[in-house]
TrEMBL record:
Residue span(s) of domain GH18: 71-233
SUPFAM superfamilies from the UniProt entry: (Trans)glycosidases
Protein family (similarity comment): Belongs to the glycosyl hydrolase 18 family.
Highest taxon of source: Eukaryota
Signal peptide region: 1-27
GO cellular component: endomembrane system
Protein name, as recorded: Chitinase domain-containing protein 1
């Protein structure tokens, strides 16, 4: 896979996540509405798009209507909000990606050489995934992974050791393939940038490129959430 196609995908997903990420809970229909509002003001929404209207209408969902927002649309589903699981099934046709917030990537110290392992697998629900897919056969199920329980020295080791990065990526990719997922949302940017106060950005980019290439090589989508800079208005 050439680096050009990688960069394309990388930026598409940054765009995707900044524009159309929403969590499937009450509060977030706000965000969804806002997306729609900014993209399709005239055709879709027959009220003026103002903060007041959004606050008034965010609970409204048209179940029958087709997806109008043309870009990829990702929805997070959290185990602590059962309603989100239903919304994802009922409105599967309005999403291109659903990301169940289930898994953590944790260091595995008791092996030589060290690697990482996946926790949170008790939350995995294949029956629900089947239901979601039955309402949208094209939908991509891309669970979110959080890096957890990494001490600063362990993170440093991860960034400094390319072979460790590859072992860990392989563990994640094997897990995704074994469970018939389409990729993963890898939450690492905010954690590392805040922990290192920005100084780890080069190592982080190197890590991300490495992982994204390994994911794509195995036909798994790699999605990286990147927040706006703190000084963005
Ligand atoms: C598919 O969506 C329809 C309409 O929103 C809903 O009634 C149905 O329960 C969904 N199917 C499954 C398997 O959840």
């Amino acid at each position: 896979m050439g680096s050009q196609s990688y960069i394309f995908v990388f930026f598409v997903f940054i765009a995707l996540l900044s524009e159309s990420t929403s969590t499937l809970s009450k509060a977030d229909k706000n965000a969804k509405k806002k997306d729609k509002a900014t993209k399709n003001t005239k055709t879709e929404i027959d009220v003026a798009v103002t903060a007041d209207e959004i606050l008034k209408n965010y609970m409204h969902v048209d179940f029958k209507e087709e997806k109008k927002f043309p870009n990829p649309t990702l929805g997070y589903v959290t185990p602590w909000n059962g309603h989100g699981y239903d919304v994802a099934k009922w409105l599967a046709h309005k999403f291109t990606h659903i990301s169940p917030v289930w898994f953590q990537i944790v260091p595995k110290r008791d092996t030589e050489p060290p690697t990482c392992t996946i926790e949170g697998t008790h939350d995995m629900d294949q029956g629900w995934i089947k239901d979601v897919r039955s309402n949208n056969s094209d939908i991509k199920i891309v669970p979110r992974f959080l890096f957890e329980k990494w001490s600063p020295p362990e993170l440093q080791q991860l960034f400094g050791d390319e072979l460790l990065q590859e072992r860990c990526a392989k563990a994640v990719i094997d897990f995704l393939q074994r469970n018939k997922f389409d990729g993963g949302v890898v939450e690492i940017w905010i954690q590392v940038m805040s922990m290192s106060q920005g100084s780890a950005v080069r190592d982080l980019l190197h890590f991300i490129i490495n992982w994204a290439e390994m994911f794509q090589y195995k036909d798994q989508q790699f999605i990286l959430p990147v927040p706006p800079p703190l000084d963005a208005s």
